[in-house]
Amino acid sequence: MTGAKRKKKSMLRSKMHTPRGEDIKQWCRRRLPILEWAPHYNLKENLLPDTVSGIMLAVQQVTQGLAFAVLSSVHPVFGLYGSLFPAIIYAIFGRGRHVATGTFALTSLISANAVERLVPQSTQNLSTQGNTSVLGLSDFEMQRIGVAAAVSFLGGVIQVAMFVLQLGSVTFLLTEPVISAMTTGAATHVVTSQVKYLLGMKMPYISGPLGFFYIYAYVFENIKSVRLEALLLSLLSIVVLVLVKELNEQFKRKIKIVLPVDLVLIIAASFACYCTNMENTYGLEVVGHIPRGIPPPRAPQMNILSAVITEAFGVALVGYAASLALAQGSAKKFKYSVDDNQEFLAHGLSNVIPSFFFCIPSAAAMGRTAGLYSTGAKTQVACLISCLFVLIVIYALGPLLYWLPMCVLASIIVVGLKGMLIQFRDLKKYWNVDKIDWGIWVSTYIFTICFAANVGLLFGVVCTIAIVIGRFPRAKTLYIKNMKEMEFKVKTETDSETLQQVKIISVNNPLVFLNAKKFHMDLMNIIQKENASNQLLDDISKCEQNTLLNSLSNGNCNEEASQSCPNEKSSLILDCSGLTFFDYSGVSMLVEVYMDCKDRSVDVLLAHCTASLIKAMQYYGNLDSDKPIFFESISAAISNIHSNKNLSKLSDHSEV
């Protein structure tokens, strides 16, 4: 007997430890999404829009790469490398079809702190005489990019470590108000950093707490040093960019290809600067020499990793938070899904691997993602095509950018941040939906501009958790309470053969960012089970949802869903009598449930809603105004379903 048991155990161990070929294939497809979508790429339908989007994206990548490299306190050419390698890595490992990874203003600002601290401008005179063999750049420039690459490397390692620890499950803490406020505050910092170029001023590097205010204080103290030529050229560039981009947005349905105003402006400004010799005549600062080619890879400076750990954590957290928000937004818009943990891996490798090629920290940018939306990109091929054009710039066209005025480049960056800056308009939405979220937005924004983006992000998360913990004790749902699900069969008078199924789910917990995602997933599982089966079950299922006592599971809906007949129509009634309070995430998820159910031909009705919930949902979402959605009681909702069914049958008979 013992021999037989040992044999069985050895067989079980061999099965457990010997991976099957199919398992390896599934793992590769899960971790290398390019293996999943590339074999099914439709050349006929997708290649043309992806090519057009790729060309437009390349223009953005080049301009932002140059500007964000300067923002990161390194030579502009390294921004071109940062626009190339991270985009390729993310296309292989990332799942966001409209996520354009590359240089990013927020991560550039953070890495600039490390660069200026470890290799300050005052050391330039000591090393400017010696040139390295790398692209003919000075030792000073190579020391600076060494620091930035070290920040990128360590930040990427932190993100990969978070992937290994499966920390993507805690991303629900990054609520929409916190991300919106943090990105808006960071965009304000970026605009402030470009003021010296817009005004043509010479300004020392200013950072640290309240550095935002010190910069403007310096500007007003030295207002006489503003170059009028740079100011006028900046204003002209901003007006042209805003005007043409608004016209492109207005007529994008009528014209197939939008005008690449950024590219036109770069060519025109560079040509005008070259012809009039603005650099020497008016003292305008230009981009300067851009060396050709890509140097051989070199490992980042490992001996300074301990000195840049603060900036590395900032790059890892801020870059991932901003990128994940864009990936989730594009997935929601175009009906596909992204894996939060896989995004950790994709962005981590997009920082680790490019750091060996002299790249600054990278992340996804809202302007580039919005550009992919507007130009009709279909897949990640658009990003790969943009990399081809960036390569052409690196190897052929780079030196022609010598004469590009920095004030024009700064204008392009400021206008490109429009998408982030107009998030100020969200304040009205938060005020009408949940005033506490409005307060979180304002306080997170203030902390961001007073300190830094990573400080603002951490403050917003801590503040959100503290407020939820403070609100829960006042809720009546501290006690475990079953969420009962009931079913009704409503036979119409005009057609007794057709059954309409009504499913009633009682929500007995607050609906906040902690449990909103799980709430949506459970309801969609119920509806999928309804549509998948052809048998009728009369069981009454039970669902228990209590997020406070089990915050990580976020309230489970364990229910044996009743199944509908093939000709059966379904309605879902949500009893909100136990929904004692909610936040912005909860309201947005309720509206999303309503829209998803509408797409699945399932009518959603809400009973026992408070006046504040009704107002918040009506303000937030595009709800169907033709049909009543909110009812005083469950019986009123059922009566409405019954009467609508009879009316629809009577109208059908009258048409016949």
TrEMBL record:
**Might you name a Gene Ontology BP term for this protein?**
iodide transport
Q: Which Pfam family, an example, fits this chain? A: STAS
Coiled coil (UniProt feature): none
| Subcellular location as annotated | Apical cell membrane; Basolateral cell membrane; Lateral cell membrane; Recycling endosome membrane
Query: Which residue ranges does UniProt annotate as crossing the membrane?
Result: 145-165, 203-220, 226-245, 257-277, 304-327, 348-367, 379-397, 402-424, 444-469
PROSITE patterns given for it? STAS
The UniProt keyword set, sorted, is: Anion exchange, Cell membrane, Endosome, Ion transport, Membrane, Transmembrane, Transmembrane helix, Transport
Where does the protein principally reside?
Answer: membrane
State whether keyword Methyltransferase applies.
no
Q: Does the keyword Membrane apply?
A: yes
In terms of InterPro entries, this protein maps to:
SLC26A/SulP_dom, SLC26A/SulP_fam, STAS_dom, STAS_dom_sf
Give membrane topology per the record: Multi-pass membrane protein
Q: Name one GO molecular function term.
A: oxalate transmembrane transporter activity
Question: Catalysed reaction(s)?
Answer: thiocyanate(in) = thiocyanate(out); sulfate(in) = sulfate(out); oxalate(in) = oxalate(out); iodide(out) = iodide(in)
Where does the STAS domain lie?
Answer: 492-641
Q: Can you supply one Gene Ontology CC term for this chain's record?
A: basolateral plasma membrane
Q: Which domain of life is it from?
A: Eukaryota
Q: Which family does it belong to?
A: Belongs to the SLC26A/SulP transporter (TC 2.A.53) family.
What this protein is called in its record is: Anion exchange transporter
User: Which organism does this sequence originate in?
Assistant: Prolemur simus
> Source taxonomy lineage?
Eukaryota, Metazoa, Chordata, Craniata, Vertebrata
